[in-house]
Amino acid sequence: MQACGTTTSLVKLPQSSPLLPSFVFTKLQSSNTEGDFPTVLTHKGVSVTLENNSVWKQFHSCTTEMILTKQGRRMFPYCRYRLSGLEPTRMYSLFLSIVPVDQYKYRWSNSKWEPSGVAEHYNQGLFRAFSHHYSPSQGSALMTSLVSFYKLKLTNNMNDQEGHIILHSMHRYIPRLHVIPVVDGEISLPDKLAFMGPECLTFIFPQTEFMAVTTYQNFRITQLKINHNPFAKGFREEGSCSRLNRIITEVRHVAKAGDPIPDVKSEPNIPLVYRKRWSFTSETSLPVKQISLEVCFIY
DNA sequence: TCTCACACCTTTGAAGTGG
DNA sequence: CCACTTCAAAGGTGTGAGA
Question: Domain holding A175: CATH number?
Answer without folding.
Answer: 2.60.40.820
